[in-house]
Specification:
The complex is a heterodimer of chains A (about 280) and B (about 90). By secondary structure, chain A is an alpha/beta fold. Chain A contains 13 helices and eight strands. An eight-stranded mixed sheet of chain A has the order 1-2-4-3-5-6-7-8, with helices on both faces. In chain A, β1 and β2 (about 10-15) form a beta hairpin. In chain A, α3 (about 70-85) packs across α4. The longest helix of chain A has 21 residues, at about 170-190. In chain A, about 50% of the residues are buried. Chain B contains four helices and two strands. Chain B has a two-stranded antiparallel ribbon. The radius of gyration of chain B is 12 Å and the shape is globular. Chain B starts with a helix and ends with a helix. In chain B, about 30% of the residues are buried. At the A-B interface, β2, α1 and α7 of A face α2 and α3 of B.
Chain lengths: ~280, ~90
């Protein structure tokens, strides 16, 4: 089983393909399976050695009580790269995974060939995204949960969501399965695990990655934002302020491009990396 | 090629104690991974790794998961997995 022993962590990963290294970083509350179910991993493995990682506290990796800010997760990533003897890689990060990618690119630019950001929201750019709290993905989840008599509120609030999930009874879980299907219900139920950690707060901490530091990113960046992204101002910031940033819109996607339009994501990534000669 | 019966028996053995969970009800081809066995998406990936280890062979499990999602399938039955393994082994 592909686990890296990085005491006190046990990090789960998967590798596929051969060639230059590409590392896939999932978002908050997700796991590496998002890259398999959509086919992004398979698509990129035709040209690259692709490594998909479960962040601490997510998927099959071990959990810690704290340590979920982007600086800590970036340090975990570099330890994993050392363990797997990956000197340099292109990083493709979805949502919070994109924050980790930029944190790594600014901390260790010699180890990052390029960063591809899929609809990333940066806590350090929160002033640009005053509507983040009402992100449409959250509103959609809110509407679903209202049907099982649960209101998670109009503002993105993961600690509250975690506490709500932990208090559901069997009847509510059954109704949720009917609303979301068993896969969706299982995703929500799995959040109970993170409720016992500081992840819900840490993920939204700037952790040193402020506006100035993001703007200082020197590696090539592809800002891969979704057609219906809630974070268009972030995408514009990246395009105009970074030294080397291309912008590309993923059609028919609303924050979940790895599942909603994986074909476009793979194509844009391959084209971008090929233009870099990678 | 392994028989469907043998594959099902292997799956029943693997799933009887998987990821720290045990199941009291009998597992047959109608059993659903997410609905009945309480799988989360990551469990499907870990099961693929477990099966590769068990059968000592590389399986095209990622394309299998991709096809599942592409069909917008709401769940996966043990019988679906037996079919896949029967084709693959």
């Amino acid at each position: 089983m592909p686990f890296a022993e990085l005491p006190p962590l046990k990090i789960h990963y998967q590798q596929s393909g051969s060639g230059p290294d590409v590392i896939l970083l999932h978002g908050f509350t997700s796991n590496l399976s998002i890259w398999m179910f959509g086919g992004v991993m398979e698509g990129l493995a035709a040209n690259y050695r692709v490594t998909a990682v479960d962040m601490r506290g997510h998927g099959a990796s071990s959990i810690t009580a704290d340590g979920y800010t982007s600086d800590v997760i970036s340090a975990d990533l570099r330890r994993l790269m050392d363990h797997l003897q990956i000197e340099r890689a292109a990083l493709l990060g979805h949502s919070f995974g994109g924050v980790v990618a930029i944190h790594t690119a600014t901390e260790a630019p010699d180890r990052v060939v390029a960063a591809i950001l899929s609809d990333a929201y940066f806590p350090g750019l929160r002033s640009l995204e005053p509507n983040m709290g009402q992100a449409s993905v959250w509103q959609s989840l809110r509407e679903t949960l209202l049907q099982v008599d649960t209101d998670i509120g109009p503002q993105v609030d993961f600690p509250y969501l975690f506490s709500v999930v932990g208090n559901w009874g069997d009847d509510q879980r059954r109704h949720l399965r009917e609303q979301l299907g068993p896969i969706g219900e299982r995703w929500l139920s799995s959040l109970v695990r993170l409720a016992r950690t500081t992840a819900g707060v840490d993920t939204f901490a700037t952790a040193g990655l402020d506006e100035e530091r993001i703007a200082s990113t020197s590696v090539p960046v592809l800002a891969l934002y979704d057609e219906h992204s809630p974070f268009t101002k972030t995408s514009e910031f990246l395009r105009t302020r970074l030294a080397d940033c291309k912008q590309h819109v993923i059609p028919q996607a609303n924050h979940l491009a790895p599942l909603e339009n994986p074909t476009a994501m793979v194509e844009a990534t391959r084209t971008f990396l090929a233009e870099l000669g990678y | 090629m392994a028989s469907r019966t043998a594959i099902l028996a292997d799956l029943q053995e693997i799933l009887s104690d998987f990821q720290g969970r045990t199941y009291d009800d009998p597992i047959d081809e109608e059993t659903m991974f997410f609905q009945d066995l309480g799988f989360a998406s990551i469990d499907a990936v870990v099961l693929g790794e477990t099966l590769e280890q068990h059968f000592q062979t590389k399986l095209d499990f990622n394309p299998f998961l991709k096809d599942l999602a592409a069909r917008n399938a709401k769940d996966l039955s043990v019988g679906d997995l037996v079919d896949f393994l029967h084709r693959s082994l």
